[in-house]
Request: fold
Amino acid sequence: MSKQRSVVVVGGGLAGGLVALRLQAMRPDLDLLLLEQGESFGGEHTWCFHDADIASGGEWILPFKTCSWPGYEVRFPGYKRRFSGAYHALRSADLHRHIAQQLGARAQTNAAVLSLTPHLVTLVDGRTFAADCVIDTRGFTPGETSACAYQKFHGLFVTTATPHGLTEPVLMDAAVEQIDGYRFIYVLPWSRTQLLVEDTRYSDGPSLDKAAMRGSLVDYIKEHIASVFTVTGDETGVLPIPLHGALKPVTAPGVVTAGVRAGLFHPTTGYSLPDAVRFANWLAEAADFDGDVLSVAAADRASAHWARGSFCRRLNNMMFMAAAPEARRRIMAQFYRRDSGLIERFYASSLTQLDWLRLLSGRPPVAVGAGLRAFFVKAASG
Reply:
């Protein structure tokens, strides 16, 4: 009889949480432990995804979702468009609940890691956990990826005094003042009176003024949604947007690395849920949880993912290097006039070479010379 393999997942955010949930469901043969340094799994975040993002094997995440809608809308000055197709959201509170219910004592919070090696995790409180396989999902650390721009956001959870009237999300209301790069407001209607309203900016730097963004959100809600409302919570985030020339994240030898720490995210949006689902599927199908072997396979997989993102990183260069911050909205307005299938494939990271040509065709939203230089020249490291 073979020895039961032990697995320690370090980091109870999205990537680590989904890995643990998938392994718990598909690999009962494993001795599994999930460690999270914070007080809850997932922190305070909202992750969204389209049906096409999780096609072919990702349906298992749907029971975890918080809410779904049949379509969404985008808005630009003088232009509005609705897209059909299921769109889903998962709040961290629901991720935490599912992890706590399904893993029980095998999922621990307040477990800050002091150090980890391929087969040993040491906590700040002195506890140690030996394992055949250690999986590091602790997230992106500034400086790990050179030549980056950023998507940053601050959102408010609000309850309106009367029904707000929105039945589907507004993924981008870019008909707002452009501040600190490309700016839009993102709205998710949870119920007839509950919403998440988020100020999102594609910016050159990671600094974020929460007070100013909160003020802009309050003004937006009063003008466009409801005059009377209560703020019940908030969330904030900064996601890396690597440029052409950025180095792929370096992973520790012998440690299976996943999530944004391994570069497993969409190179233009920064969103990581679809890749977290795909990685969890891949890991659950592993024949042997020998960390020394699996870490090499995971690193190779991450390198291949990074290579596939090359075209999108070149597009990022055109956004951040060829267009002035106040002109970036033109690029996105042109993108959202394209064929809906192309837009779907873009978000699902399944662009074809013909799609590449389509995205580069038409009237250039930036000066041709500047666009060509940005597309072909590597950005300097920060």
Remarks:
- The radius of gyration is 21 Å.
